[in-house]
Structure formats: structure tokens, C-alpha cells
Amino acid sequence: MSVLVYVEAVGGKIKKAGFEGVSYGKQAANQMGTGVTAVLFGAADAAEVASLGNYGATKVLHASGDAFNTFESNAFADAMSAAAEKEGSTLLIFPFDNSGRALAPRLSARMGAGLVSGATAYPEISGNTLKVKKNVFSGKAIAQVEIATDKKIISFTPNSTGIQEVGGSAAVEAFSPAVKSSKIKLVEVQKQEGEIPLPEAELVVSAGRGMKGPEHWGVIEEMAKVLGAATACSRPVADIGWRPHHEHVGQTGITVRPNLYIAIGISGAIQHLAGVNQSKTIVVINKDPEAPFFKAADYGVIGDAFDVAPRLLEAFKKFKANQN
Amino acid sequence: MNILVCISKVPDTTTKISFTDNNTKFNTAGVQYIVNPSDEWYALVRGLELKEALGGSVTIITVGLAEDDAIIRKALAIGADEAVRVNADPADSYFVAAQIAAYAKTKNFDLILTGKETIDHNNAEVGGMIAEMVGMEFVSPVNKLDVNGNVARMESEVGGATFVLEAELPLVISAAKGMADQRIPNMRGIMAARTKPINVVEPQGVQPLVKVAAFEMPPAKAGVKMIDPENMDELVQLLHNEAKVI
Ligand SMILES: Cc1cc2nc3c(=O)[nH]c(=O)nc-3n(C[C@H](O)[C@H](O)[C@H](O)COP(=O)(O)OP(=O)(O)OC[C@H]3O[C@@H](n4cnc5c(N)ncnc54)[C@H](O)[C@@H]3O)c2cc1C
User: Fold this and answer.
1) How many Cβ atoms from other residues are within 10 Å of residue B224's Cβ?
2) Exposed site from A98, A238, A300, A323, fewest CB < 10 Å?
3) pTM listed for this prediction
4) Residue A278 C-alpha to ligand 1 middle, in angstroms?
């Protein structure tokens, strides 16, 4: 009966999206008059596992065997369907990140469960019908999607509904379901050392063609470093090779949803905005007062990036120095 | 190497989005359609490059009505060999995946490629569902793909790291940025596309699992506050005290 929530631990720490997922599941479980079972993948110590109770999990199934230490979509999908069966769950919750994108569609097809991907609000549940909102047309509109199948799956957009502490405690059970082996072999993992991964970043410093050339990115990188932000760029900047492809945000790149998005020398074309318009606060620096980005901005600065960006960097440094 | 590339019709990226029928239907009046960018730029083009290097054929498939033939011709002009259209309105991802899986089961594809997600419903669902339905493994997102004999070597960029993976074919793969570059169809391709047949197949009876009850527009921004470029300390204070984001 309980609402089942997918939770991952990496390097012994539960991911933030895992806590948010449990809070999300708790909200749905309250409407359904049931509890939340978190399925935790990956090793974590007892205190870390138990902390899930604080966000509303009444039970934790902890899958920590060798098969569950690195993400593997087949094994993890099998484990989630085994957990759903064991708990008699009719509602499964995933984060709409790379793990959720790989798992939720498989389970939807396997269980005949209606799936809403990228929910941005809590669901409204009445009887067997669940309605939930998600962004469509790359953030240009919102759809209210209805699921009426007996089994249901929601993957929520991380950072949408947030983490709520409820101060409960959870019963923890070791979980080692039988899973199919996979023919996919992990050859190696190349870490991008020191960088903050863009999709999960809370602060993003982004720059466009207005920077004139890759040799001018020093100020952007330094600003990101001072803030603890990720760096991003517009599509042409990645296409010409000034910046790596994985920094390209927009309709055809990565969609981000940080608390702060600083755009320097980016015009704000509709395709770019589509990937960033869900940011909580947008700062735009552009020398052209007519740049379309100002319409989507919260704070705007009209000026030359080569002049304004170094000044903003100094102001951030001063602010950080005063905070410490 | 027989490759199936799933393509979806989506509104052009500059489309002004609006709705009709009491906000329950997308307003298609005056809308220009394109092949979903990640289907075209990454999945289709990489499929063609692999075929050109290794031999075989590239089949494109879409679930849609006769008006979708225009985007099918575009994909054929870029170089696909064959096209299949499942003659039905694409009700939801599950319905679409079930149609494609049913077709794929009648053939022997080494690779089934989808784009990372469509720019209309942003679901990223169809690839994983097809994999489950045809009993293949699914790799998502894939930013680089090479095939050597019977083995695919893939790079997947996830959470600040690149995972290098290998697996025997067949596979279902979700194609993302980095896999290939956009190809502009040339005159010869466009001419050839006109005469390539589109194989229209009738749909399987499958019930969709979800439906959109209503659409709405996002709340409007409050308006931009302009800051003097000489006064970046003020901007930092506003970000701290007003926006509370630093
Ligand atoms: C199908 C399709 C999909 C697309 N997808 C994406 C996408 O996902 N992401 C994306 O970003 N784009 C995408 N684009 C491209 C998009 O349309 C724009 O061309 C692109 O975003 C422009 O990048 P830009 O703002 O860096 O460059 P430009 O448009 O050249 O703008 C540069 C800006 O910098 C300003 N500037 C110049 N010099 C200075 C200076 N010294 N100081 C301050 N400001 C300065 C200028 O005023 C201008 O506003 C897509 C296009 C298509 C057709």
C-alpha cells in the first residue's frame, strides 16, 4: 500500500533529490492515508539511512549489496519492481534526473503504470485518479496530466517542491532482491575534477558569444569558483568549441533550474530561455538594452561585459570575505 | 548494421504556444513543425554515420497521421533509407512506444535510437519503454557512440562524470548532445526523398495510460530591476537580501 520512493546514496551520502523524493512521497501518502517506504540504493551508515525518517519515510528498504553500488538500470529496475510487489505499492516516486529517466519508463511499461515525467508540484489525488502538473514545451507552458491506471509513477523535477522535515523515524530493513545481470559493462569513469555538475547546480554563471572568445572566460570561471557555481554557455559557444558541449544549456541542451542564473553576453534567444526560464532568479548583463533576455530577467545590468563582469566578480569576493 | 531511428514531430522552437478548447488542446493554427532536434541531430545523424562506415540500413519510424509525411521526407532527405509511419494519433508515450516496439519485433534491428527527449512534452519516456517492451537493454543518455563488430562503446555524461560503457548489440539508446552534428540535407537528398516510399502501417490496439487534463501558461515575471553598472555591490546585496539566493 505504501508510497515507494527511489533514493540513491553516492559516496555514503544520500543525494538531496532522495530527501526531496521522500518529502514528495509523504505529501502523496498523506492524501492516500498510507506511509512511505524509501528504497535506498548504495552503501551508507546507519545514521545516514535512519535520517530518511526525518523526511517522512516510515520504512527503508536498504539495497546495499555489490549489485547496487553503481547505477545499473536493469538491476535497479528489477529491485524497484520487487519492492513495489513486496510493499503492495500503487504509487512510485522517482527524481526526474538521469536515474529516474532510465528507470521510470521501464517500470511504467512493465507494470502498466501511467507515468508523469518531470512533475513540478505535488499531486492531487482523489480516489483512483491522480492529477499533477509538469512543464511542457520547454517551460513555455504547464500541463496538468491525469493518471487513472491502478498503478502510477511520478518522476518529479528536483528542486521544485523542496525538502520538508517532519521529524519521524523509519524502520530499516536490508533488501537484497534477485536481479537480472546486465550485459552492459562499465569500462571506466572519467571524473571532471573540481567542477560542479551543471544539472544539479544551485548557482550557475553562464556566458555567450558576447565574450568574444574562449580566452576571455577567466572571469566567468573565477566568478563561478567564488560563488561555488557551475559554468554554462549558449549553444553557439559550445558549437564553435569555445566551451565543452556539456555546458550548453537551452531547449536543445541541458535544462537547468538553479536558484541563481547569471547570464553574461547572451542575447536570450527563445531556445536559450527555454532551458533556463525556470531559474528562481535571473541576472542579465548585456550591452544591448534591447536584448530579449532582459524580459526574462529579475535583475539587469546594461553594460560591457568586459567592464561589468570583473566588477561584479570583485563585489562577490568582497561579499564572501565579509561573510567569513 | 540495421538501425531504427524513432523520430517525433514537434512545433518549431520559435512557436508561440497557445491552447484552444478551454485550454485542453494545443493550438496548431499556423504552427510550423520540425523533426525533434535530438532525434534529428544526434540519433538520425549518428545512425547514418554508422551505416556509412559499417554498411546496413537506417529506417526511421514515427507514430502520426498523414500530415507527418512532411517531417518524414525531411528525415529521408538527410539520408534515411526507409520510413515507417504508424497511422495513429500519438496519444501518449506508452501508446507510441507500444507501436514502435510492435514494429521492431517484426524486424531484426541491431540498434534502436531515440532522441534524449522531445521539446514538446519533455518526457524522455519512449526509449526506456521500448526497451522494456522488446526485451533489450537501454542506455541513457549517450553522448558518444561507436560500434566495433558486435559491441557498442558508449560515453554517458552523468552528474559531472563521463561513464564509458560497453555492451553487445542489440541495444536501445537515448541520443544526446555530442553524438553527432546537425546535417543539412543537400539537393540530391531532397530529390531522392521524394521518391522513397513511406511504409504506412496500421496501429495495434493499445490504451494510453495518461492524458493531459488541461494546459495553462506559467505565471508572468514581475519585471526586471535595472542596476547601475557602476554599482555591483548593490546587485550583490539584492541577491543576498532580496532574492536570498547567495
Ligand atoms: C532549433 C534550434 C535550437 C536551438 N537551441 C539552442 C539552445 O539549446 N541553447 C542556446 O543557447 N541556443 C540555441 N539555439 C540558438 C539560439 O537561437 C541563439 O542563436 C543563441 O542562443 C545565441 O547565442 P548568444 O546569445 O551567445 O549569441 P548572440 O545571439 O550572438 O548574442 C550575443 C549577445 O551578447 C551581447 N554582447 C556582445 N558583446 C557584448 C559585450 N562586450 N558585453 C555585453 N554583452 C555583449 C549582444 O548584445 C548579444 O545580446 C537554437 C537555435 C535553433 C534554430
Assistant:
1) 17
2) A323
3) 0.93
4) 18
